């Protein structure tokens, strides 16, 4: 197993001396992406020009990437397409899901959901203007809130702030029994832990390409639609590449076959190329082995930090089976603490109001770095390195 993770670590460019614990926000540069982008620009864009849509297969890249992602999230071929952003894909999924729910009006979510998902739901409600409402409950109250009044269950599997992990299989089963359509946000799941969309019976799923999938900043996202539903939905974003025959340039929209109808506009080929190259790091990697290692790394970090920094409060579940691939602690000056850590070459991030967040990606993080990061955190806390003006002033991105 050590040989596996030594091999994958060599696939990434991480600055010398830096301990990178923020792959749950932005994965590091894959060497393959750097090389592939240079080749794509020079040979295909530069040499083939517009011909590359055919000669280089650009037009089919979203489907090829979708199938690669599908293999990581338990989705069959032809059920995932890479496209747009997570928020745009949620809009597509939610409007499609609501078209299947008849007279039901409740969209059920939880207070641990990523705020952008809730904003999208609010926007969908205003846009449709059909009396839908968003019901938000505490994460632990979701199961009890699923009943025959609910139209759609919309959840993020791993809480972005604390790392708390929902039981997708159990919640989806209860939803299906109550006739509820399910949408899962896998932004902090895909590439972090085993996901089985088919086995769980999930209806829709979305996720981003720039976190654990290492696709680069602003990388294209993905959307999954259960195969049995694909031909039953008509996208609300009916763009030309989701058309049955886009190059006939018909004046009326006819949805394309299966998952292709979830495409909308022209795909960003250079970003798609980087994502495709970043996904190559997963070739020959068992996601179950990654999960086992992830839990061990997070458990070690919790043990080390609590021994060294007793004033920090663990915000993540202590049980590794109940959290994603991250660990979060609370501190009243969490933002400044994180800035001091970053200045000392341990990169994590901060989430308001008081969470310092550390993502553990076994593809490039090992046990030595985990202990070293805890040692630096101890120094920052005990010596109050965070207590200076440059660390207390917040930047636009936290």
From TrEMBL:
GO biological process, one term: anthranilate metabolic process
Keywords for the protein's UniProt record, in alphabetical order: Hydrolase, Pyridine nucleotide biosynthesis, Pyridoxal phosphate
CC annotations in GO: cytoplasm
Gene Ontology MF, one: kynureninase activity
Enzyme class at the top of the EC tree: hydrolase
Pathway the protein contributes to: Amino-acid degradation; L-kynurenine degradation; L-alanine and anthranilate from L-kynurenine: step 1/1; Cofactor biosynthesis; NAD(+) biosynthesis; quinolinate from L-kynurenine: step 2/3
Cofactor: pyridoxal 5'-phosphate
UniProt cross-references to InterPro entries, sorted A to Z: Kynureninase (IPR010111), PyrdxlP-dep_Trfase (IPR015424), PyrdxlP-dep_Trfase_major (IPR015421), PyrdxlP-dep_Trfase_small (IPR015422)
Entry EC number(s): 3.7.1.3
SUPFAM superfamilies noted in UniProt: PLP-dependent transferases
Known catalytic reactions: 3-hydroxy-L-kynurenine + H2O = 3-hydroxyanthranilate + L-alanine + H(+); L-kynurenine + H2O = anthranilate + L-alanine + H(+)
Subunit record text: Homodimer.
NCBIfam families, sorted: kynureninase
Family to which this protein belongs: Belongs to the kynureninase family.
Function: Catalyzes the cleavage of L-kynurenine (L-Kyn) and L-3-hydroxykynurenine (L-3OHKyn) into anthranilic acid (AA) and 3-hydroxyanthranilic acid (3-OHAA), respectively.
Protein name: Kynureninase
Gene name of the encoded protein: kynU
């Amino acid at each position: 197993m050590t040989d596996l993770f030594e091999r994958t670590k060599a696939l990434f460019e991480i600055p010398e001396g830096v301990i990178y614990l923020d792959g749950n926000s932005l994965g590091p540069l894959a060497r393959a992406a750097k090389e592939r982008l240079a080749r794509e620009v020079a040979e295909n864009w530069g040499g083939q020009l517009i011909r590359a849509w055919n000669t280089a297969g650009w037009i089919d890249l979203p489907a090829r990437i979708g199938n690669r992602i599908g293999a990581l999230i338990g989705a069959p071929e032809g059920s995932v397409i890479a496209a747009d952003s997570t928020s745009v894909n949620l809009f597509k999924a939610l409007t499609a899901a609501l078209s299947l729910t008849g007279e039901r009006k409740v969209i059920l979510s939880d207070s641990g959901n990523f705020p952008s998902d809730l904003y999208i739901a609010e926007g969908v409600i205003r846009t449709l203007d059909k009396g839908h409402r968003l019901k938000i409950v505490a994460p632990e109250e979701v199961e009890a809130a699923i009943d025959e009044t609910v139209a759609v269950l919309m959840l993020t599997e791993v809480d972005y702030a604390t790392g708390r992990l929902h039981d997708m299989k159990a919640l989806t089963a209860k939803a299906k029994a109550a006739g509820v359509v399910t949408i899962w946000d896998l932004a902090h799941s895909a590439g972090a832990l085993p996901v089985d969309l088919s086995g769980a019976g999930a209806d829709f799923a979305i996720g981003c390409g720039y976190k654990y999938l290492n696709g680069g900043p602003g990388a294209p996202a993905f959307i999954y639609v259960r195969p049995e539903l694909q031909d039953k939905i008509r996208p609300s974003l009916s763009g030309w590449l989701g058309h049955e025959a886009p190059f006939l340039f018909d004046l009326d929209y006819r949805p394309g076959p299966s998952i292709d109808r979830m495409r909308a506009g022209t795909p960003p080929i250079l970003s798609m190329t980087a994502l495709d190259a970043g996904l190559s790091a997963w070739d020959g990697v068992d996601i179950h082995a990654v999960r086992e290692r992830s839990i061990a790394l997070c458990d070690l970090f919790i043990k080390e930090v609590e021994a060294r920094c007793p004033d920090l409060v663990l915000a993540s579940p202590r049980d590794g089976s109940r959290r994603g691939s991250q660990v979060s602690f609370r501190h009243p000056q969490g933002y400044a603490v994180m800035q001091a850590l970053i200045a000392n070459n341990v990169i994590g991030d901060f989430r308001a109001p008081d969470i310092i967040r550390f993502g553990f990606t076994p593809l490039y993080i090992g046990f030595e770095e985990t202990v070293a990061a805890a040692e630096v955190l101890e120094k920052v806390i005990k010596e109050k390195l965070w207590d200076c003006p440059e660390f207390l002033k917040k930047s636009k991105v936290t």
